[in-house]
Known about the structure:
By secondary structure, the chain is an alpha/beta fold. The protein is built from 9 helices and 7 strands, in the order ααβαβαββαβααβααβ.
Amino acid sequence: MKTKDSLAQIEEWICANTQDEGFGSVYERVSLGRLLNRLSKTLKIKTVLEYGVPFSKGYDNMVFIKNKCNVTVADPRVEKIKKSWPSKIKPKFAKIPFKGEGFDLVWNFALLQTDPDSIKEMIKKSKKYVLFFTPNIWNYGTPFHVAYHIVSRKKCTHAERGSIRLRRLGGLKKFAENNNLKVLEAGYIDMPPWPDTAFSIREVKENILGMKLPPKEKIKPLPGKQVLDKVNNTMFIENSRLPIKYFFAHHQYVLAEKK
């Protein structure tokens, strides 16, 4: 894949290489990528740091690379991420903690709700913009997620945990302001018609029904374009003017600027 490829080709690459995460995750990445693509062009950024990739694995930065940005992916487990990177086109990799700052944009996905203090390093390393995403607690799947952990008695390791305040858009905006950031844009993304329960059917079978399941079999991935077509056909809520889209949104975001 070449960096001159269109956004659609990047999305096909995402769809082809992340199917093992599940269709919901693929949908999430496409939705996220379109927002990142828009911001990349609107803000005219050239250097990007994704600070902490506990769930994203850094793959979503392919959109920035496509737009000819100089990208760094930083994480405590960066060596593992680097080894499993599925493309010859790669960002720079750094292990947290690391020295270096002056990035046009510093961002992360689903980190702040469990590690609010990471905002300090994000701000320090940013030259201008800070962008962060957290799970949306108002999604109608939240009660199912809570019920799953009550019944299974399993400690939550999903992204949908941590600070309740930072899983609400109002709380996330206030958090930015309290850290001396100017909020430029805030909203919701990732709005499929299914709920964000966080747990998988496999987890229900194993942890609630007590079933002993064999290891997951590797399935032959479908062509990226075929999966992308399915994603596009499922985006009717995201592309609508529904007044209660927050009820379906799995995530929210805040784009802010250093004062």
